DNA sequence: TTTTGATAATTTTGTTTAAATAGTCAGTAA
DNA sequence: TTACTGACTATTTAAACAAAATTATCAAAA
């Protein structure tokens, strides 16, 4: 898979870590390549030896975080006791992910309009993983007869994920945004759990 | 209430109509006060005799539209056969409202970040009307025993409205936005009806 | 192969100017 | 006194440019 040497991979990781810390604390645009380099006592030029440009570096960090998130989700949704528990796990894992990395995502707020395609691919990958895992959960529960039969589990999951996501975009509160404000995250989280509760009941007999 | 003469009110209305047409076809920033004035064969200065400034004129039109929307909603939700029908009405009326006035709202897209407080007040008024009417509907249905007892109808309506609104902000599709794109409105509309269907079932025995 | 200092290229920020548009006002007409 | 206007001023927008900050490259050294 990876074509470089072990040494190279180790250094690459170190750069990713340093970049992550900077991006997390100061955001994308307030982080300079020089700062990342000097955090590691390296020359800036070396960063360009390992990564083609700044945005690719950011994306590489993003990809790593997404991978961890996905692993997390898969191991947790590998088995579950009931449908609600499965969805609750998804909601919680995502909540923690957002809370932990909140400032890292300032890149999203800044570039709101046109995120690079690569970022969208990562978002899509996450979304598809969620779709696959949760659709499977619905299918299993439907087969067990724990909920009503479902024609198209994917459609239901898609709808629910949209609805859950929508809870963070309250139409009324001042200062809109694609991305929720940090202070609201916990409120959003509990609203989601309530929505899930009603939604799941709607799927049951 | 209104302090001007009838004549004044009539002219005011004419200005509002002309402004509405311009804003609807060309959007806020591509409409000049001169254009509105000459549509009516009046001097621009007269517009300032009736309205303090351009944004107040826009807001006055907005207020009028909101008033019509609210009247619409109230007369429709005055009585209903069952809970689902009530919510379907709300969804449909809002859908039509958005479709009809789509371009008028370009002001919202442009000023995305900081809409004037007055606009937020109008949005809030609409939201509160929806809350009151739909909460009442839930209360009535709960008392009739058609759905499970509900502690706090307002909370449920708020949640559902958020979720419905969220359907228009698909997290995955490229090109985010606070405001949905015109081509997606019908797809959003049917997703909402599906979400409503499941949600209502979740409220039933 | 990995690393760097020096340098080039690009982006961002700030400044100036001109044009377009918003907004004011003294005065006229009904 | 109320409704209205032409001529004026003030403000906003946009384009063009320069300076500063930052990204990105590259020839050469370790």
Question: What does the secondary structure layout of this molecule look like, with pairings?
Answer:
The structure is a homodimer of 205-residue chains.
Chain A: H1 6-26, H2 33-39, H3 44-50, H4 54-76, H5 83-100, H6 106-110, H7 117-144, H8 153-166, H9 185-203
Chain A binds a DNA duplex (30 and 30 nucleotides) through helix 1 and helix 3.
Written description of the protein model:
Two copies of one chain form a homodimer. Chain A is mainly alpha-helical and 205 residues long. Chain A has two domains: 1-51, Arc Repressor Mutant, subunit A, CATH 1.10.10.60; 53-203, Orthogonal Bundle (Tetracycline Repressor, domain 2), CATH 1.10.357.10. Helices cover 69% and strands 0% of the residues of chain A. Chain A contains nine helices and no strands. Chain A has helices at residues 6-26, 33-39, 44-50, 54-76, 83-100, 106-110, 117-144, 153-166, 185-203. In chain A, α7 (117-144) crosses α8. Chain A is elongated and about 65 Å long. The termini of chain A are far apart. The mean pLDDT of chain A is 92. Chain A binds chain B through residues 112-114, 120, 123-124, 127, 155-156, 159, 161-172, 174-178, 191, 194-195, 197-203, and chain B through 112-114, 120, 123-124, 127, 155-156, 159, 161-172, 174-178, 191, 194-195, 197-203.
């Amino acid at each position: 898979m990876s074509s470089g040497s072990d040494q190279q991979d180790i250094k690459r990781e170190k750069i990713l870590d340093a970049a992550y810390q900077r991006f997390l604390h100061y955001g994308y645009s307030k982080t300079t390549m020089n700062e990342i380099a000097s955090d590691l006592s390296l020359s800036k030029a070396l960063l360009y030896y390992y990564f083609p440009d700044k945005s690719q570096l950011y994306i590489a960090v993003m990809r790593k975080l997404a991978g961890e998130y996905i692993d997390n989700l898969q191991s947790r949704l590998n088995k579950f006791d009931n449908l609600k528990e499965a969805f609750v796990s998804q909601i919680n894992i995502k909540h923690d992910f957002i809370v932990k990395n909140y400032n890292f995502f300032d890149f999203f707020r800044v570039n709101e309009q046109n995120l690079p395609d690569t970022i969208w691919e990562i978002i899509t990958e996450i979304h598809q993983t969620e779709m696959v895992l949760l659709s499977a959960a619905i299918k299993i529960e439907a087969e067990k007869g724990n909920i009503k039969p479902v024609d198209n589990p994917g459609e239901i999951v898609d709808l629910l994920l949209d609805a859950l996501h929508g809870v963070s975009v309250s139409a009324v509160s001042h200062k809109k945004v694609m991305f929720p404000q940090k202070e609201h995250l916990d409120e959003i989280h509990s609203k989601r759990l309530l929505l899930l509760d009603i939604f799941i009941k709607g799927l049951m007999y």
